[in-house]
Write a structure and sequence with these properties.
By secondary structure, this protein is mainly alpha-helical. The protein has one domain: Arp2/3 complex 21 kDa subunit ARPC3 (Orthogonal Bundle), CATH 1.10.1760. It is built from 7 helices and no strands. α1 runs antiparallel to α2 and α2 runs antiparallel to α3 (54-72). It is globular, with a radius of gyration of 17 Å.
Length: 180
Amino acid sequence: MDSNNKRSNMNSFQIASCAVFCAIVTFAKIASYIIPPLRTMVALIIIAGFSFGSFNACVIATVSVLVSGCFLGHGLWTPFQIFGLAIIGLISGILSKNETIIKNKFFLCFWSTLCVLVYSIVMTGYFILSFKINITDTVAFIAYMIYVLKKDIIHLIVTIFTVIFLCEPIQKISNKSYNF
């Protein structure tokens, strides 16, 4: 085989594992519309990056957003969601190469906070661009930011708890015999 033509070394079991995790993330996003405070999609993409690697986490993020959009509706926000979650999965996968960092609970809290902040900035940027909020109108802008901050604090708490409690068990499952 030509060295310039690289192929993935994933076997069918690894592909199926990623597909199952993609279904779990999709279900979590759909469930978050039923119970809004339980938004765990960012946490599951962080865990996907840590457990399955950068490329697979980006694929899981993209497919999950597209499939959940089939149930919940696609819109102008879909590319922004894909971009935000793919960046989170990509960087989480890069960080997964250092195992000592991932086992540190303080780092998991810090990384979860940073990821929710990045996702919030991307989605707030979409909202400001699409609805043409006048940033110079400080009263409207501050009112919107207070509204977003309240939701993001709840999102942050749920993300931190989800990452802390599910990261290690899912990594054990993915690393046990699947060699991700």
